[in-house]
Amino acid sequence: MLSAVRNNIRSYSTAVKTLKIGLIPGDGIGREVIPAGKQILEALPAEHGLKFEFQNLDAGFELFKKTGVALPDATVEALKQDCDGALFGAVSSPTTKVEGYSSPIVALRKKMGLYANVRPVKYVEGTGRPVDMVIVRENTEDLYIKEERVYEKDGQKIAEAIKRISENATNKIGKMALEIALQRQAVRELGGTSLHSKPSLTVTHKSNVLALSDGLFRETIKKLYDSNPKYASIEYKEQIVDSMVYRMFREPEIFDVVVAPNLYGDILSDGAAALVGSLGVVPSANVGDDFAIGEPCHGSAPDIEGRGISNPIATIRSTALMLEFMGYPKAAAQIYAAVDSNLAENKIKTPDLNGKSTTQEVVEDIIRRF
User: Fold this and answer.
1) What is the CATH number of the domain that holds 48?
2) DSSP SS3 for 284
């Protein structure tokens, strides 16, 4: 998929292509922002040669409370058989154990083979700290395999969780991160704006404590990097996760592509959103070898549900990111540029960015910039 993106940067077909996109609103404001992504796709100029069909699909905690199923088999099958890509809204996952429930987005990543969560964090001039990085998070293992147990010893409860790092999964995420570094450099060479003059990869780990599990993660990616001459233009770096957090907030401009195991990547990517003002503007995509699901990072936000003020920008940027991984970088670039223009003007914005605009007003302002 990544090679297709880089090829299309230089060779772009204008033949009309119809793409079927699955829409999975989920819970809370997911039901408000996913329609924004749909509107953006429908409004793309004809010059991109893209038409869209949409399939509404179910998943989420609210669905679980009604049916006892958080991720229906029909949703997974529709994505596999009928859809070219998808957008996922949000999940209201409970903080305490609910018998029979597990996160549908975690399950969906595994069932669809979406082993990478890709989250770009880029500032627009005048709107935050100078930052232009992509956090690439392994999506299928680490502590998120959810193999836990509770037992008693000496009259005390003890809870344990298994942390799993495999060579196979690490090779896949390492290759994804390295390819993204090359892809970003290709865009720069075509005139794309960036804080970086050359590509770099920072491998984040805690192998000074977890010598076997995190040690395998760092060793596997280093071996992959060393074994392929095509990656020679990428500067290889490593960072212990706690110092990574410190440096990310102190000097975020030094990081280009960051790759991390599941838990560290989850924490780093949410924290990085603070550098650009709000989770409401940061996109992500769950990516595999032949499928991508765009997913905003902000959660279901029940405190603002139904008020029409949720920020649609994370979803709109996630929509562009989905298109990018599907092999349509020019359409994605036009969406990114329209969003950047909206943010730079700093007038039509939702309350999380200290504005007074509605979700729909932001959508319409971005569309008029196409």
Assistant:
1) 3.40.718.10
2) coil
